[in-house]
């Protein structure tokens, strides 16, 4: 099967101009767990812009896109829980062509069915950030993935971004108090809308601000921006046996010995680790089933804030520009 895709030959900065192009590619033969999906909408994540700059990812042409909602058009031999015509959501893998494509082959174990009452664009904004937040909170930090079954407080650095917005909601659902950081009025307002109990300014001394609201140590801290900048201060704020986590690569070695004498843990989270290493792949489909249930129950709300219609190199160039400006609140979705 041939599909139109939007991709590029080698990594490029946006300052060089638009190097996205339209290609026609042959989709791979389905294995027993695969499905073919006709994509309806895809969200743009910071990882897309990083992979575009580096030129890493799939084989050439590089076809990005790691959040999608689409309609199933074909099934592999061993796919029993889904049917042609089902609408599904997924985050995909860096090992295959992504969802900047009209049609895509995806492992059925990575998807969840999307009920009719949930909007396509709102759902497409969520998979990657929800999986990232879920894996960090419940698989790395050891919290219980059930409503109101946890205690304590979490500090989330960069609460208004895609992952921060979801992590705030999930942590509140799980029973934690949530402190986030934001600096602009609109990001503070958004973070409060997501459920933050306190919002402090990351342009000011965080330790002093936390002390003013009654916190000198915290059991859970999540860094979602500039790990190098925040690691030392957050390590000092972490309480004994606490969890300090990050999703942002460090540009220099981190001194983990700071955490040793308080038995503190440092947790990395990278949602593609499971598909990169074929490790518990089906768990991500199960996580998305929880997302669907929480959306249906209105316990979690979509972080969609902007939609761009169209399927062209110009549309994806514009979308990457908006994400790289670093002023995004919530998530941007391209609707095909």
From TrEMBL:
SMART domains: PKS_ER
Domain Enoyl reductase (ER), chain residue ranges per copy: 17-334
Pfam families, per database record: ADH_N (PF08240), ADH_zinc_N (PF00107)
Gene Ontology terms, MF aspect: oxidoreductase activity; zinc ion binding
Record CDD domains: AL_MDR
Residues making up the signal peptide according to the UniProt record: none
Keywords linked to the UniProt accession: Metal-binding, Oxidoreductase, Zinc
SUPFAM superfamilies (alphabetical): GroES-like, NAD(P)-binding Rossmann-fold domains
Family label: Belongs to the zinc-containing alcohol dehydrogenase family. Quinone oxidoreductase subfamily.
The protein's name: Zinc-type alcohol dehydrogenase-like protein
Organism for this UniProt entry: Enterococcus devriesei
Organismal lineage: Bacteria, Bacillati, Bacillota, Bacilli, Lactobacillales
